[in-house]
Each structure stands twice: as C-alpha cells, then as structure tokens.
Amino acid sequence: MEDSLRKKFVKRAKRVVIKVGSGVLTGSRGLNRGVIDRLTKDISLLRDDGIEVILVSSGAIAAGLRKMGLASRPQSVSQQQAMAAVGQTTLMMAYEKAFSRHGHKVAQVLLTRDDLTHRRRYLNARNTIFTLLAWKIIPVINENDTVVVEEIKFGDNDNLSAMVTNLTEANLLVNLTDIDGLYDSNPRDHKEAKLIRVVEKVDRSVYRYAGSIPGFLGTGGMASKVRAAQKVALAGVPTIIANGLKQGILTKIFSGDEEGTLFLPREVSLCSRKHWIAFTKSPKGALVIDRGAEEALVSRGKSLLPSGIKEVRGRFSLGNAVVILNEQGKEVAVGMVNYHSGDIKKIMGLKTSEIESVLGVKHDDEVIHRDNLILASQMEEGDSLCQLQT
Predict the structure, then answer these.
(1) Which DSSP string corresponds to 152-185?
(2) What Å distances lie between residue 23 and 50, 142, 175, 270, CA to CA?
(3) Strand stretches in the chain, DSSP E
(4) Which residues contact 332 (CB under 8 A, 6 or more apart)?
(5) How many angstroms from the chain centroid is the CA of residue 207?
(6) CATH no. of 275-381
(7) DSSP category for residue 261
(8) How far apart are CA 381 and CA 379, in angstroms?
(9) Any residues with CB less than 8 A from the CB of 153 and at least 6 apart, and which?
(10) What are the pLDDT tens digits along the chain (390 aa)?
(11) In the chain, which segments carry CATH 3.40.1160.10?
C-alpha cells in the first residue's frame, strides 16, 4: 500500500521543492563538497527527466564560519548576518560549479517573509521563479539573512520550504536532513527507536515524537520539519523527510523506494489564496469578537461585521492578517482586514450602515470578508470552498 502511494506521488510530481539542511551540507571543514556533488548530480538527472526542481538550501552561515576560520556561530545578530553574507557567495559558487558539470545553470533567490506577506511581492516572486524554471534554470532559494529582522524571519528553512512549495504550486516537498526520517524517539539516544514510514495526519502524538529529536547544526529540529509537512499537506501536497547523507537518496526517492517518512496530503485542501493568508501572512494584531459573531463565522460561514467586534489588539493596516479570538481568548480564525486598526476601533460594535457617517468613507461592509477568512478548524482539516483563487 505504502509502496504504491509513494510511486503514485513521485510519478505525478512534475515540480518539486527539495530542501537541504545544514546537517547535510556541512562537514568538519565547512561545506561538504562530496555531498553537494552527489545531490547536484541527482537533481540534474531529475531535471533531465523533465521534473522542475526548486532547491531550498541552508548552509550560508556554516560556509561563512569556515571561510572566516571561526569554530562557532557568532552570537550577535549583526555578526550572524555578516557571516551569512560571507558564506552565501561560497555556497552559490559551490552550487554553480557542481551543476555546471552536468550542464545546468542556477540562480540565487534570497527572500524574507515580508516578500511573501505582501500579495504583489508574493506574485512577483512566484513569476520570477516560474520564469527561471521556464528557462530550465534551477532556482536556489535561501532566506535573506543579511537584512532580515526578527519580525520578518521565516523562522527556519523548513518553514521557508513549505511557503515556497505553496508559492510555486509544487507537487512534492522533499526535506533532506541528517537522519532517516521521523522516529518514535531520538535514534541517537535510543537504539530501539523505530522509523515511522507513513504519517497520515499530523497530530499531537506526531509532535511528541518530533519534539524528542533536536536539530544540531540548523535552527530547526524535527518538529519544524513536521510543521512544514503539515502546512503543505493542507495544500494537498505530500512530503518526504529523508536522509540526505545517503548515497543516491534522491534517485531512490523518485524511484518510489521506501526511504524516509512519507507525510500524506489532506484529501480536501485549502486553496492557494487561503493557504497564503493562513500560513504566509504574519498576523499583525487581533480582534476579539462576541458570541453572536463567533456563531456567524463558525456555523453560518458569514463575514465579520463591525457589530460583532468587542476589542482591537495591536496596530495593523488595511490588508494585514489578524487573529480572531472569542471572548474566552480561543483562536477562532485568521483573516485579512479591510480597515486599519484605528478605524476598526471607531466602528466596532456599530452597524454596517453607520460606517460611513463615523469614518467619512466606507471601504467595505465587512471588516473581514468570508473569502479572506480561514477558520481554525479549516486550517486543521482543509477547505474546498475557496471563492478567490490566486
């Protein structure tokens, strides 16, 4: 059953995101050139077979450490950013040389979360990557560590790989790490640890397993890889977490071999726009709503009107994403607002007909339209009723 599932997923994968972590790329003397040579050979074979490959690569800071002759990662943000700037050139040069041996060109794409939070920049980034793929160039994507600040960080490249998978409408995410996949306990500490071959749905038990397996060289451990798999599953995309240090690992995966842990996609998925609102846009504030508004959103699929809002938390602008909370503080939904926070404070509790007289202008009847709103339950189960497509 599992074997046929894997073969089905890889056979229909015409565009894939391959994420390679620091634990795979980094050796005792900086970048592991042998691993890079093997991976680029396998990726080139996939590209020659007509599969479009987008590479999300860690390793810039690790490469910078080696280049500067340092033994440990610096502590200050500015030093880490400078180290990333030093190492990024080394990383890209290594990829360019390795891919050129197989007749392929690469392009560097550096992103911050801010680039994907703004819809126009999101679409621009997508169009750029699609153009590179059309030119048969392999995009190598990394977070723009040299300029990023905490508020616009992806958090780690696992999260970035999930966002890129959705951005590019890829059919499969392959996350290469330095162990064989998700185990039921840390295999480095427990010899009896068992590899979990298939995860049908990410739940608390899966996170408990993942939480026991830390990351070493990278910023994320197994938990961040599971979160990324959950996000793409909600977009209807499978994930395979596997050991990137294994010889020929990509060839084995794309032959349908039982390698690593397969995370199954959800049968009913969030459409691209709602997935973007739910997982890519970073919430800038919160709205607390009354019981009547909660019932209207959850049970009747309605938009959020000003009359149901009791409190505005934080400062945000028109088009930002906000969390919607009920009176008990439980998260009900995430949505994209039609008014900035100052205006919502003025009109909360009022009827729609009163908006213009209070503000002097009325952008929309709704504070959040239902097409731009994702319920917490939908983020867990998926949602097939998307009115606005990308």
Answers:
(1) G--SSHHHHHHHHHHHTT-SEEEEEESSSS-BSS
(2) 29, 15, 12, 32
(3) 15-20, 26-27, 30-31, 52-57, 105-111, 137-143, 172-177, 198-199, 239-243, 261-263, 285-289, 309-313, 321-325, 331-336, 373-375
(4) 289, 294, 297, 298, 324, 325, 326, 375, 376
(5) 17
(6) 2.30.130.10
(7) E
(8) 6
(9) 112, 113, 143
(10) 566 888 899 999 999 999 998 889 987 777 889 999 999 999 999 999 999 999 999 888 878 887 887 777 777 778 888 888 888 899 999 999 999 999 999 999 998 877 777 777 887 888 899 999 999 999 999 987 666 554 434 557 898 999 899 889 899 999 999 999 999 888 878 888 899 999 998 888 888 888 756 554 444 588 889 989 988 888 889 999 999 999 999 999 999 999 999 999 876 556 666 666 766 667 889 999 999 999 999 999 899 999 999 999 999 988 888 999 999 999 999 988 989 999 999 999 999 999 999 998 887 889 998 878 888 876 655 444 443 333
(11) 2-267
Please tell me the distance from the alpha carbon of residue 17 to that of residue 275, in angstroms, as a whole number: 17
Q: How far is CA 41 from CA 32, 38, 59, 249, 252, in A?
A: 14, 5, 19, 11, 13
CATH superfamily of 2-267: Acetylglutamate kinase-like (3.40.1160.10)
Q: Take residue 244 and report the two structure tokens written for it.
A: 């990137």
Q: Indicate where the chain has its CATH 2.30.130.10 domain(s).
A: 275-381
**Gyration radius from the chain CA atoms:** 22
Cα distance between residue 275 and residue 176, in whole Å: 24
**Nearest-angstrom CA–CA distance, 244 and 174:** 10
141 near 111, Cβ under 8 Å?
yes
